[in-house]
Design a protein that fits this description.
mainly alpha; Tetracycline Repressor, domain 2; 2 domains; 0% strand; globular
Length: 213
């Protein structure tokens, strides 16, 4: 029975990956909004109903790794070393994904991936929902860890800031990519030092960075 279940699960993963691969190839070639689910099904060699079984919304095929990324992020925070902050854990996670789209479909997707999002309101809307889900899920984890009461502001504010760093890494242009923490490094440093000296009224040239500890 376990062997049969394992085979079924592998087949499901294979089918899902095949659909996502076919979808991304079509999206990259023609644009997200110009591709229909029927065309994706035909390219993947499955029924249109099968596509919807795996991806209830077309945008989920574009962001097909969203749930995996969230699971990895939560694991990085939940299982961080004793004495390590949530901020440090997120920084480590971002550093591990400095080239966010590396290895995705198609072979050189990074510039095109961002172009496709910029050209589609549907993808932009789905991306906002995706990051909102990240924020609420991480906030729940932080509330549990800190013993905060339900609905407390602090875990949510911290979560929004941390996911903002993640989003900065996600949306950075290829030219912004740097070794290590990459384009998110300034945001990580800003959060590490606090916001008290950021954008202080009357100070010029200090709205983009801290001036010291």
């Amino acid at each position: 029975m376990d062997t049969e279940e394992g085979l079924r699960e592998r087949k499901r993963r294979h089918t899902r990956a095949a659909i996502a691969h076919a979808a991304m190839q079509l999206f990259a070639a023609r644009g997200f909004d110009q591709v229909s689910v029927a065309e994706i099904a035909a390219a993947a060699g499955v029924a249109e109903k099968t596509v919807y079984n795996y991806f209830p919304a077309k945008a989920e095929m574009f962001f097909d790794e969203a749930s995996d990324i969230l699971a990895e992020l939560l694991a990085a925070v939940r299982y961080r070393a004793a004495g390590e902050s949530a901020l440090a854990a997120v920084g480590t996670f971002v550093a591990g994904r400095a080239e966010w789209a590396a290895g995705r479909r198609p072979e050189q997707p990074t510039p095109r991936f961002r172009q496709l999002i910029a050209a589609s309101r549907a993808l932009q809307a789905h991306q906002r929902l995706m990051f909102a889900r990240y924020e609420s899920t991480l906030a729940n984890l932080l509330a549990q860890e800190t013993g905060a009461a339900a609905g407390s502001v602090e875990p949510f504010v911290v979560s929004v800031a941390l996911i903002g760093v993640l989003r900065a890494a996600f949306e950075a242009s290829p030219g912004d990519a740097k070794p290590g923490r990459g384009a998110a490094a300034p945001a990580l440093d800003l959060l590490a030092g606090g916001l008290a000296t950021y954008a202080v009224a009357g100070r010029t040239g200090q709205s983009a960075a801290r001036t010291g500890p």
